[in-house]
C-alpha cells in the first residue's frame, strides 16, 4: 500500500468512517510469529557494568511513578511526590523520576508537593480506566485535571467503539480530548492515549489503534491502564515502537511510547530499553519520548543501583513501600 508522505496528506484518511476504515484495514498485517520472535530475541540481550548503570539511571528517569487506587489519600500522594524528587535519600545522585501520575482530584496535591521540582504531574482522565462515560463528562474530567495543574493527561479510548469498528468516533474522541488539554494561555498538557491492548485482542487492532492515536494528535501512545489481566508486553510495545518509527519517517512528527502495567524488575526495564534502541532508535531514549507506567519498578531499580555501587544487595527493606 502507498502511504501519504506528509501529515497534510493524511487529511483525506479521516474525512469519513469508511475512509478511515479503508486506511486502517489497508495497513500491513502483523506477522504474529515474527513479532513475538523478534521481541523475545531482543529480550535476551545482556548489558554489563557501566552500561547497566547507565540503563538503570535512564529507566529511573523514565518512570511515571503511579498511584491510581480508590484508597489514595493526600498523604500518600505527597509521599509519592517526595519519592519522585528524591528516590534514594542516601544517594542524592539518583535521578528524579519523569512524573507522578494520579487521579484528577489529586493533581493539586501532587503539584504543591513537588514545589517546582523538575517532575511532571500526569493525570488519568476520560473516566479512567473503563472510559464508560458520555463525551461531555470525559472532556470535563480532562479540563478539571488541566486546570488543577496537570502537565500531562493519560486518556483511555472507548474500546467498545473501537472494537465495534467505529474508528472515526475513536479518532474524534482523541481530537476532542487533545483540544481540552489546551490552557487559556495557549499552552497545553501533553496527551498520552491509552489503548488497553489487553482488550484489543489482536496485534492488527493494536497497530490500527496506534495509527488512530497518532493521526488524532497523541503526544504518546500507551499500552495499558494496568487494571486488566494483560498489560504491557515486549511484543505489543515493539509493535507500537514500529508504529511511531514509521509515522516519524513519513511525517517528521515524533510521538512517544509508554508501556504500563506488569513491568516490575530491572531486568524487565532493560529489555524494554533494548527494544526502544533497536526499533525506534536513540532519539527515543529519553523521558521526553519514552516512559514506564509503574510503581514497584522503581524499588527494584534502586536496589540494583545500590548493588552496583556498593557490591552489596540491600534487599526490599532498603526502599519505601508505596
Explain how this protein is built:
- The chain has an eight-stranded parallel beta sheet with strand order 7-6-5-4-3-2-1-8.
- 46% of the residues lie in helices and 10% in strands.
- The protein has 322 residues and is α/β, with parallel strands linked by helices.
- It has helices at 17-25, 32-42, 49-61, 74-85, 107-114, 135-147, 159-163, 167-180, 197-200, 203-216, 234-251, 266-279, 297-310, and strands spanning 63-66, 99-102, 120-125, 152-156, 190-194, 220-222, 256-258, 292-294.
- It is built from 13 helices and eight strands.
Rg, rounded, reads 19 Å
Structural class, from helix and strand content? alpha/beta
As a percent range, the share of helical residues equals 40-55%
Can you summarize the main beta sheet? 8 strands, parallel
Query: What general outline do the C-alpha atoms trace?
Result: globular
Strand count: 8
Strand coverage percent: 5-15%
Order of neighbouring strands in the sheet with most strands: 7-6-5-4-3-2-1-8
Quaternary organisation: single chain
Q: Uncertain regions: pLDDT < 50 for 5+ in a row?
A: none
Number of helices: 13
H-E order:
HHHEHEHEHEHHEHHEHEHEH
Question: What is the residue-averaged pLDDT?
Answer: 94
**How far apart lie the N and C ends?**
49 Å
Amino acid at each position: 500500500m502507498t502511504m501519504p508522505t506528509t501529515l497534510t496528506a493524511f487529511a483525506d484518511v479521516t474525512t469519513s468512517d469508511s475512509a478511515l476504515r479503508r486506511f486502517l484495514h489497508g495497513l500491513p498485517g502483523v506477522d504474529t510469529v515474527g513479532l513475538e520472535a523478534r521481541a523475545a530475541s531482543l529480550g535476551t540481550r545482556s548489558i554489563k557494568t557501566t552500561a547497566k548503570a547507565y540503563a538503570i539511571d535512564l529507566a529511573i528517569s523514565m518512570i511515571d511513578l503511579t498511584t491510581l487506587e480508590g484508597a489514595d489519600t493526600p498523604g500518600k500522594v505527597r509521599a509519592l511526590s517526595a519519592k519522585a524528587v528524591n528516590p534514594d535519600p542516601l544517594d542524592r545522585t539518583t535521578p528524579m523520576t519523569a512524573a507522578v501520575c494520579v487521579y484528577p482530584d489529586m493533581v493539586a496535591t501532587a503539584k504543591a508537593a513537588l514545589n517546582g521540582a523538575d517532575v511532571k504531574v500526569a493525570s488519568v482522565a476520560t473516566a479512567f480506566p473503563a472510559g464508560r462515560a458520555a463525551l461531555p463528562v470525559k472532556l470535563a474530567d480532562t479540563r478539571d485535571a488541566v486546570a488543577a495543574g496537570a502537565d500531562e493527561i493519560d486518556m483511555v479510548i472507548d474500546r467498545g467503539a473501537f472494537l465495534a469498528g467505529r474508528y472515526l468516533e475513536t479518532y474524534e474522541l482523541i481530537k476532542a480530548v487533545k483540544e481540552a488539554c489546551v490552557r487559556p494561555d495557549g499552552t497545553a498538557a501533553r496527551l498520552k492515549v491509552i489503548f488497553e491492548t489487553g482488550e484489543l485482542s489482536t496485534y492488527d487492532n493494536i497497530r490500527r489503534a496506534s495509527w488512530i492515536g497518532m493521526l488524532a494528535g497523541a503526544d504518546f501512545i500507551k499500552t495499558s491502564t494496568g487494571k486488566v489481566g494483560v498489560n504491557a508486553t515486549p511484543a505489543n510495545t515493539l509493535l507500537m515502537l514500529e508504529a511511531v518509527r514509521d509515522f516519524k519517517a513519513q511525517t517528521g512528527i515524533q510521538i512517544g511510547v509508554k508501556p504500563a502495567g506488569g513491568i516490575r524488575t530491572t531486568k524487565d526495564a532493560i529489555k524494554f530499553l533494548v527494544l526502544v534502541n533497536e526499533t525506534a532508535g536513540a532519539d527515543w531514549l529519553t523521558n521526553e519520548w519514552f516512559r514506564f507506567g509503574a510503581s514497584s519498578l522503581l524499588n527494584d531499580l534502586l536496589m540494583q543501583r545500590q548493588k552496583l555501587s556498593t557490591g552489596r544487595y540491600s534487599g526490599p527493606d532498603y526502599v519505601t513501600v508505596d
